[in-house]
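Suppose you are handed a protein chain with no further information: no name, no annotation, nothing but its sequence. What can you learn? This example shows the usual starting point.
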Amino acid sequence: MRTSYSALDTYRQCPQKYKFQEIDRIRAPKSKEAIFGTLVHDALKFMFSRDPLYPTLGQVAAYFRENFDAKSMNWQDAEREAYRESALGMLKNFYAKNAPWNFSVVDLESKFEVLIEDPISSETHTLAGKIDRIDKLEDGTFEIIDYKTAKKLPSQEKVDADFQLSLYHLGLQKKWPQLEPSHIKLSLYFLKHGEKLSTARTQEEIELTRQGVLDAIREIAKKLGAAERFEPNPSPLCDWCAFKPICPAWKHLYRSQDPGIKNQEEIDAALKEYFDLVKNNAATEARMAELKQKIREYMERGGYDRVFGEGGFISKSLQKRFAYDFEKVRAILEPLGKWEDILEADDKKLKLVEKQLPPHIRQEIEAARVLIKEFTVLTASQKKVSPG
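A reasonable first move is to predict its three-dimensional structure. Written in C-alpha cells, the prediction is:
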C-alpha cells in the first residue's frame, strides 16, 4: 500500500471519510480553511526561497495578496477581508521574529518516501510525505519545522506524542540515514500565536511509530478484504468535511424527500414520538422497541447511520463481541513462558498479560480474535441539529 500522513490521519479521525477520499476517490472542494492554510504556507516558502537576496516583508505580503485574491474571488467580501487580514497579521509577526537570513534552511517542502516492511505479511508499504522546512542548526542538529495556522495551541504532552512529527522523523532519517535520532529536532510553529513548540523522538519511539503505521494499514486491509464497513466517527470536525451531505451519519439531515419512501410522514411521526417519550421518560419498553424497530428498518432501507427528528437524532452503530481462539493464543504465549499466567484463561486475564508484551506480539494475539456476535444499537440525543 502507498499511503501518507494525511491519509492515515484521516483514517484515525474518521474511517468513513478515509473511504470517500482514499478508496472511492470522490473529489471534494477544499474548505476555506484549507485554502487559507495552503496560501499561508506558500507565502512562507516564498519568504525562504531566495538566497542571498531574501524578499522584504512587503514582497511577502504582496505575494500572499496576489494568490489569495485569485483563490477567494467567490467568497463574501467580509469573509475575504477577515481571512486576508488574519494571514497578513501572521506573516508580519512571523517575519519580525524569523528574518530569513538568520536561518540555515537546507530544504523547503521536502518530499520523502519511507519503505516499511510488514514482518507478518512480508508486504512492503510506502509512506510518502512532505516536510514544510528543514533547518541545520549551529550544533549540527537538523530541525524539522511544520507550520500550523490553527487557533488552538496544544499542550507539550500532545506535541511529544504528535504522530505527524514522528512520521516526519522517519522521513528525514530515510533522506539522511547517517543522522542519529538525537540529532533531529521536531517543531510545530503556531503562526497565530507566534509560538514554536519542539520535541524529539528516541529510536524506540520511532519503532513504535512504524508499528502504528503498520497497525493502521493492516486494519484498513482487513476491512477491505472482509468487505467491512468504514464506520463514520461524528465529531466537531464534521462541520468542515465536504463529504457531510453524503455521509451515513449526516445525509438524512440533507434529504429533500427520499425517492421511493412513501411513509416519510410516518417515520417523522415515529421520530417525534420517540423523542417525546425519551424527554418525558414515559415510554414503555414495548412501545420503545416497536418504534426502534420501525426506525431501524427505515435506516437500513435508506442507508442512514443517523436520522434526525424534531427532538434530536438517533444513531446506529455496529457493536461487535469477540472471543479468543485460545489454542492459537497458547501457541503464541507458550514459547514466551506466559501461557501459565492465563491458565483457566479468560479475556480479562489475557488483557492484563497482553499489556506487558511488545507491539508485534499484541498484534498476533488480536489477530486470534473470533467474531462471535454482531448487532446494531440505537442511541438517542436530544440535541437539535440543522444542516450547516
